Amino acid sequence: MIGVNKLYTNRISSQEYLFKYPWEHYIFDDFLDDKTLKKALNFIKKKDYKFIINKDDKQKIQYSLNFDNKLNEIFVSKWFKTFLEKITCSNVEFFEENFVQLRRMDISSPVFSKHVDIIDEQKSFVIILYLTEGWQTINKGELLLYKTYRTSKKNSKIIDPILNRLVILPTGKNHWHSVEKVKNFTRYSIIQEWIKK
Q1: Which of 20, 49, 105, 159 fits a disulfide with 187 by CB distance 3.0 to 4.6 angstroms?
Q2: From CA 181, how far away is CA 55, in angstroms rounded?
């Protein structure tokens, strides 16, 4: 697949990228190849996006469905479907209702509080690709995973929103997670979802 790091287009062992605490999830660093990443970052910088916030959304999630076609192609491709199925040992189908979204989190965004991503008891995989240059720990905006709803931040698994990091999160009724509020920073990510058959 053109656009993806060759490391991931060859046969790979899912165990190498699987993390089991506090629940199973996958992390792939440097996911896009350099050319595709550079193009995507330039596209985000140059385009005057109209980000939508749904009227009743307390989390005030900012998203756009209109962005780089190349990234859209990668994340809805047969290659990505096969990649996801091999990694997760599951049969999946693209969740079209959510599309592929470009999301923005800035200083006006609240903390994305502790929650689970479950739709009508349907299990799925949420895909996140971080697309922000220059992130540092002081900027916050990390993804936190919790063993239970009562688990403290101190005992959570922290995933830093490092540029070009792909995260795969299986949904589940006990897969609690949250996102820290960003500080003096704007964080971009691609989000999509695949339903487990």
Answers
A1: 105
A2: 20
Provide the 3-class DSSP secondary structure of residue 12: coil
Alpha helices of 49-94 — where are they, by DSSP H? 69-75, 78-88
- Give burial (CB, 10 Å; 0-12/13-18/19+) of 166: buried
Q: For 83-92, write each residue's pLDDT tens digit.
A: 999 999 999 9
Angstrom CA distances, 33 to 2, 9, 36, 146, 165, stand at: 8, 11, 6, 31, 12
Q: Which domain holds residue 174?
A: 6-53+64-196
Pull the structure tokens for residue 40.
């995507």
| 97: three-class secondary structure by DSSP | helix
Q: Is residue 126 part of a domain?
A: yes
C-alpha closest to that of 194 among 165, 170, 167: 170
The candidate with the shortest Cα–Cα distance to 70, out of 161, 127, 1, is 1
Q: Which CATH number goes with the domain that contains 108?
A: 2.60.120.620
With contact defined as beta carbons under 8 Å apart, do 104 and 186 qualify? yes
pLDDT in tens, 124-149: 999 999 999 999 999 999 999 999 99
Angle at 81 (CA atoms; ends 39, 32), nearest 5 degrees: 25
